[in-house]
Amino acid sequence: MRKFYIPQEQQSYQLMPNHLSNMEQSHHEKWVFIVNPTAGNHFARTLIPKLESEIRKHQIDAKIILTISHGHASELAQISIKSGAKYIVAVGGDGTLNEVAKMLIGNKNVVLGIIPAGTGNDFIQIPGFPNRFEEQHWDIFFQKNTILMDAGTCNGVPFFNGMGVGFDAEVAAKNYLADGTVKKGGKDKYWSHIIKTLLFYNEKEARVNNNGQKTSSSNFMKTIAIGRRFAGDFFITPRAIANDGLLDVCSIQKLTLLQRFKILMQVPKGQHLNDPNVHYDQTQGLEMEFDAKVPFHVDGELYFASKFEVAILPEAVNIIYNPEGSHFFSV
Asked: Residue 223 pairs with which residues in a beta bridge?
């Protein structure tokens, strides 16, 4: 049986296999797909017919709900939990994933899923899926293989891929318009922002306390991560394992312009770790302080602060992953 209705503020579709008996329907698991229709320059919206097809194919009780604003995915996730959903799936980019996932932290009875439909889709490599699903990936997804995954927190804001200050945060800042909305465009816009920032960025001194070890330096970039990939092509923390209870930290010292371009060419393959200006370690948490507020990103979302408290949240969420893919888990 299919039900279709359009509330005043959003669209919602509910599909239930009509061949199930009443007894089977009372015991089956509920799914909710939270779709950000604007993700990926509106690519996410085009996935709705495919979602409907896969829901019928795999005979699940599911609801598809479209978000209408920033932060709405979090509200929908919270409502879905209260309504008894077992599987809550974010359909969008890293921002949509973050909004949904942070509502599931500590709730191991609810499973998080992600259908990539954004522009960069950095997070999706953690569970071992590609940027765009092909037919076999839908089948693997609905096998419901799950694993517990770590998360991080920066000044109380959860992250599931990573956060950063310095160069990558400056790049993220250039991805926003003055009113706070994200600029339109695909991967090419990231490269434009990267080149401009490489040319004109000025490093700022930070004081860092990492497990009692205090240092002060002007970093070109400091990335603290659960995952490995950022801005679509850059494996800044290539050794990260998403369930080891540790944050991977990549710190790049102040660089000349020539050194910046050299590092940029090395990062996509993770070869920057051999550079003497790069320091890589792991931690359960650290503190940083700048003299003034600086931009920082959390899973691509932009914030500003002068003081930072960063910590690991071990086994924070239960997530669907691809055991046949190149995931970032230790199993």
From this structure: 164, 250
> In the chain, which ranges are E strands?
2-5, 12-15, 30-35, 61-66, 87-92, 111-116, 146-154, 157-159, 162-166, 204-210, 213-225, 229-230, 234-235, 247-253, 278-283, 285-298, 301-320
CB 133 within 8 A of CB 320: no
Query: How many degrees, rounded to 5, is the angle at CA 127 between CA 123 and CA 132?
Result: 65
65: how many CB neighbours lie within 10 A of its CB? 22
Over 90: is that where the pLDDT of 319 sits? Answer: yes
Residues in CB range of 307: below 8 A, 6 or more apart: 155, 287, 288, 289, 290
**Cβ–Cβ under 8 Å, residues 61 and 108:** no
Taking only the tens place, the pLDDT of each residue in 23-66 is: 344 347 999 999 999 999 999 999 999 999 999 999 999 999 99
One-letter identity of residue 259: Q
Q: What percent of the chain has pLDDT over 90?
A: 74
Among 173, 130, 119, 129, residue whose Cα is nearest residue 297: 173
82-121 per-position pLDDT tens digit: 999 999 999 999 999 999 999 999 999 999 999 999 988 9
Local structure of residue 69 (DSSP, 8 states):
S
At 185, the pLDDT band (50, 70, 90 cuts) reads low
Measured between alpha carbons, how far is 146 from 182 in angstroms, rounded to an integer?
32
Count the helix, strand and coil residues of the chain and give each as a percent rounded to the nearest 5: 25, 35, 35
| Residue keyed to tokens 């995954």 | 149
Among the ranges given (92-96, 178-182, 302-306), the one the predictor scored with the smallest mean pLDDT: 178-182
